[in-house]
Amino acid sequence: MRLHRFILDLDLSADQLVIFDREITNQIRNVFRMETGDPFIVCDGKGMEATVQVVSDEGTIRVNVIDRRVVDMESAAKVTLYCAVLKREHFELVVQKVTECGVFAVVPIISARTVKLGVRLDRLQKIAREASEQSGRGVVPEICKPVSLAQAVVQASDNETNVVFELGAPLFPAFAPAAASIGMFVGPEGGWGDGEVEQLRAEGYHMAGLGPRVLRAETAAIVGVFLATGRFNE
């Protein structure tokens, strides 16, 4: 039986833990209907997790730690997605799925053709945490504040390799060199604006394709991260 899993800011070195988080206690008590003696998994979001067992439920929930272990589910390369802000439901889907695929961080970009200019960081961070819980990851990817394309380029200068997805470019990831960190740039629904691709190419970024078909922005982001985390995990 697969145990329910929660990521919480807890010190897992203790033999007994107290869960105060109201959202989590509500899930344990009212959604999953757990009772005294029921086991589940708690992760500290820093790469450690523990199997625990409910011992009391009186407002807060107390659990005993049964065992602890390191969670090693991360890609060998840190893949950061620089994605133009999309419509709310599309961007939320991107955050959820790239988290499941192993992304290191997501940086929303305000580009020339971005339609929606804002994001709800608290909502996206919650989606990322729940996706990490569901997929068995030991860490939650960072969801950054939106930045301009120029600011994203400055941030991405720390990456060993940066890739821009563009229709008709050489197929990714066959050409991509091995790298400890890789940035992946995905434009908005209407594509990159005039001069933006040239700006990224001038920075030495690799132009990469995902096949002959025209993909939606959210599809390109998800597929690209999936291929990158798989390619650099070999």
What can you tell me about this protein's structure?
- With 234 residues, this protein is an alpha/beta fold.
- The chain folds into two domains: 66 residues, Hypothetical PUA domain-like, domain 1 (Ribosomal Protein L25, Chain P, Beta Barrel); 154 residues, Alpha/beta knot (3-Layer(aba) Sandwich).
- Strand 4 and strand 5 form a beta hairpin.
- Helix 2 runs parallel beside helix 3 and helix 2 packs parallel to helix 6.
- The mean pLDDT is 90.
CATH class of the largest domain: Alpha Beta
CATH architecture of the largest domain: 3-Layer(aba) Sandwich
> Helix/strand/pairing class, anyone?
alpha/beta
Q: What percent of residues adopt helix (DSSP H or I)? A: 25-40%
Shape: elongated
Give the total of domains: 2
SS elements, strand count = 12
The CATH superfamily of the largest domain is known as SPOUT methyltransferase, trefoil knot domain
Strand content: 25-35%
C-alpha Rg, in Å? 20 Å
N-to-C SSE series? EEHEEEEHEHEEHEEHEH
Number of helices: 6
The largest pleated sheet is described as: 7 strands, parallel
Mean pLDDT: 90
By CATH, the topology of the largest domain is: Alpha/beta knot
Can you tell me the residue ranges where pLDDT is under 50 for at least 5 consecutive residues? none
Distance between the termini: 30 Å
Subcellular location: Cytoplasm
Organism: Candidatus Uhrbacteria bacterium RIFOXYB2_FULL_57_15
InterPro entries: Alpha/beta_knot_MTases, PUA-like_sf, RsmE, RsmE_MTase_dom, tRNA_m1G_MTases_N
GO cellular component, one term: cytoplasm
